[in-house]
Design brief:
There is one protein chain. By secondary structure, the protein is of the alpha/beta class. It is built from 5 helices and 8 strands, in the order ββααββαβββαβα. The strands form 2 sheets. Strands 1, 2, 3, 4, 7 and 8 form a 6-stranded mixed β-sheet that branches.
């Protein structure tokens, strides 16, 4: 199983933190990733490729080629970090500008035949209320609809990631 882990928290992880799993790991604080500029060139001028040249190109390749993509984020002001939000904005090249009806809703047409299953780890630096957790989980369910995949889990975890290792083992 091909697992991609995208860590946007301030704690750096290594492959040694996932001893029983073969993972591709990105610590985004060590990468150069710019914000999406909203030009839509990835749809119009260079279909499927972002015109911004930075480390995001490597992440997009890893995401689309993985069976499971797991995002790790601190909670900031009741939501995932701005770094993770920026990563999601930059995944626009993975879908098409056209629309389909999915689960009685309008969503983008998929560009690829297969998309990875998704997981989200919320680093619990402070108590995450049930309300905040539900809001985040629901928004990631919606993200999974747009990517034509399934959200396998959203978990609260500490910096040691024991819960994530259990989820990966259960997958």
């Amino acid at each position: 199983m091909n697992i991609t882990i995208i860590n946007t928290s301030n704690k750096l992880y290594s492959k040694n933190d996932f001893p029983n799993h073969d993972v591709t790991l990105f610590n985004t604080t060590e990468l150069k990733i710019k914000s999406c500029n909203g030009c839509f060139d990835c749809w119009v001028k260079t279909p499927g490729k972002c015109v911004i040249k930075d480390d995001m190109e490597e992440l997009l390749i890893a995401i689309i080629n993985s069976d499971l993509t797991v995002y790790i984020s601190d909670i900031k002001v009741g939501y995932v970090s701005s770094g993770l939000k920026m990563i999601h904005d930059r995944t626009l090249p993975l879908i098409l500008p056209y629309m389909d009806i999915v689960k009685d809703e309008v969503h983008h047409t998929k560009r690829y035949e297969k998309y990875p299953k998704l997981g989200l780890v919320l680093i619990e630096n402070e108590k995450i209320s049930d309300e905040v957790f539900d809001i985040i989980e629901n928004s990631y369910v919606r993200l999974s609809y747009n990517m034509r995949t399934e959200l396998l889990f959203v978990i609260k975890d500490d910096n040691m990631l024991g819960g994530l290792n259990n989820e990966i083992s259960n997958y």
